[in-house]
Design goal:
Blueprint: E1 3-7, H1 11-23, E2 27-31, H2 34-43, E3 48-51, H3 60-70, E4 75-79, H4 84-92, E5 97-100, H5 105-120, E6 128-130, E7 133-136, E8 141-144, E9 147-148, H6 153-164, E10 170-171, H7 172-180, H8 187-202, E11 212-215, E12 219-222
Parallel strand pairs: 1-2, 1-3, 3-4, 4-5
Antiparallel strand pairs: 6-7, 7-8, 8-9, 10-12, 11-12
Helix pairs in contact: 1-5, 2-3, 4-8, 5-6, 6-8, 7-8
Length: 225
């Protein structure tokens, strides 16, 4: 049974999300502040975090930064902040998904399942080597020039698919379908944010990418040499 931590200071939201996830078979714990959330993460680490940004004691983005300092645990942001800039910042900080309030509990459940599926899927294929990059789908690990690379579930899914077909150009919509199964609002900017994170982790110079290349007007590709 997967364990989900719901972090939100609105009792109605907490009750709706907790009840809906529990009815779907998840074990759910809750936190009403950033401090409570971080204590819960240390004492009883969940499989996934649903994180509000408007917390009473500290900004949820700070909590997300703190999580990412020590863990690649999946995080779905659930917030009333609907500006594209807020979405991009959340994704660039390492969120796996971003859901805006008001929201559909059914959609949130689908996204929770999708993110957990990405974080636990095992592929029977052998490790793929592209230049100095090695991606092992079975162990869900990646190394660059022998150095382990810590990736979120979404980042790994993107990199594994692109590494399986080096040189192939993927549109942003195609990449969005890979990680979510559908094309969602602001999908292009979301993919850009994930690519930016990947470049920061695998490129010698993220500002002059040689591995994850931009194909202007189309999308991205993984260099095949």
């Amino acid at each position: 049974m997967n364990h989900v931590l719901v972090v939100d200071d609105e009792p109605v939201i907490v009750d709706v999300v907790r009840d809906y996830l529990a009815a779907a078979g998840f074990r759910v714990s809750t936190a009403r502040s950033g401090a409570d959330a971080l204590r819960s993460l240390r004492s009883l680490p969940p499989d996934l975090v649903v994180l509000d940004l408007g917390l009473p004691d500290r900004d949820g983005l700070d909590v997300l930064r703190e999580i990412r300092r020590t863990s690649e645990r999946p995080v779905i942001v659930l917030t009333a902040r609907d500006a594209e800039a807020d979405r991009v910042v959340g994704l660039e900080l390492g969120a796996d998904d971003y859901v805006v309030k008001p929201f559909s509990p059914r959609e949130l459940l689908a996204r929770v399942r999708a993110v957990l599926r990405r974080s636990s899927t095992v592929d029977d294929g052998r490790p793929v080597t592209v230049g100095d990059l090695v991606v092992d789908p079975e162990r869900r690990t990646a190394t660059m020039a022998g150095r382990p690379v810590a990736l979120t579930a979404t980042e790994f899914e993107l990199l594994a698919h692109m590494a399986a077909s080096p040189g192939r150009v993927y549109t942003r919509n195609q990449l969005m379908e890979i990680v979510h199964g559908v094309v969602v609002d602001a999908g292009g900017r979301a993919i850009d944010a994930h690519i930016k994170n990947l470049r920061r982790k695998i490129e010698p110079d993220p500002h002059r990418p040689l591995v994850l290349q931009t194909v202007h007007g189309v999308g991205y590709r993984l260099a095949d040499a």
